[in-house]
Amino acid sequence: MQTTTPASGKAVANWLLLGVFMLIIQILLGGITRLTGSGLSITEWEVVTGTLPPLGAAQWLQEFDKYKATPQYLLLNSDFTLSDFKFIYFWEWFHRLWARVMGLVFAVGFLWFLVKGAFRKDMIKPLFVLFLLGALQGAVGWIMVASGLTGDAVYVKPTRLALHFILAMVLLCYTFWFALQLKVPPQERTAAPALRRFTWLVLGVLVVQLLFGALMAGHKAAPAAATWPLIQDSWIPPTAWKEQPLLLNFIENKLTVHFVHRNLALLLFVLVVLWYLRSARVTGSRLLQATRFLPLVLIVLQAGLGILSVLAALQIVPNRWGVFEWLAQLHQLGGMFLLLSLVWMLYLVRNRVPAAS
């Protein structure tokens, strides 16, 4: 294998950043699939033959008949016409197609850089981890869909949706971090151990918040308390602790999930403001100075979008795209950008500046 050059390292980084962009699109497509109730429209996982949608009337009727055997159709969408089915089928099919395209981009890029000798030895392990994370995400995605195809389920299980979403966030952050290692020069990383530890704290709270956001989506919990700042005329809804054992409320009780998600948002807002004030006292690199405002701006936007999404939840019309759905998608996009901004800050703020190679 040829010796890599700085230019080839940057090319690999750009390839990884293309993957970050494609992952963001894929996660947004997953949000559209969920909001339109499309996730259970394709009842089989066919890696190769499922690439093309039904191509004729007979194939469409065959797929529709498969959907008619699912609990979602029997219990929720029994009034669906073939046209309704084609709409939800499209979003699930496109979501899966985009995943296939991402896999192709990764495979072709990997082979191209391998032939060109662009990979250093220290890149092999992260690339292998990326492959494993991608494969795991695909497997969990199908397990999630399968959870809604049996019994009396009309949607996928919220816990499996949350796992699928969090794994997508892990894959997104890992790909972004890998790209930063190749693209950001060592002199742009600032030694600030205390700020780095605080960044880890904020990131930890955000990950928990994203988990509860996914549970909110899975339980469709926004309409359960479409008021702000109170939740059903109370700061702490009395039915938030009705499940036994108590911890079950944090998974199964939509009002508890709603309550936790709102209060974690408030905690996260305070933490990001404190992070910004602390970072302002650090004499950092050019990149840190120029971009440390990003988490603060994004948390303000996220808070506003979250409140507006809750207030718009009463306008939800089944199988129709409206104001709530737009706000929910923007809220999801904002959450990803906030997460990536904190990963960016974590990368720039080091315990010590590594020696230049």
Tell me the number of strands: 2
Q: What does the largest sheet look like?
A: 2 strands, parallel
Strand content: under 5%
Low-pLDDT regions = none
Distance between the termini: 20 Å
Please tell me what the overall shape is: flat
Q: Which secondary-structure class do the elements indicate?
A: mainly alpha
How helical, in percent, are the residues? Answer: 55-70%
Q: What would you report as the Rg, rounded to the nearest angstrom?
A: 22 Å
Give me the oligomer status. single chain
Average pLDDT rating: 90
User: What count of helical segments does DSSP give?
Assistant: 12
H/E element string? HHHHHHEHHHHHHE
With strands numbered from the N-terminus, the spatial order across the biggest sheet is 1-2
Describe this structure in words.
This protein is mainly α and 357 residues long. The protein has helices spanning 6-35, 57-68, 71-75, 82-116, 121-146, 158-183, 193-219, 249-252, 254-279, 286-291, 294-312, 323-348; strands at 190-191, 349-350. A two-stranded parallel sheet has the order 1-2. α7 runs antiparallel to α9. 34% of the residues are buried. The model has no long low-confidence stretch (mean pLDDT 90).
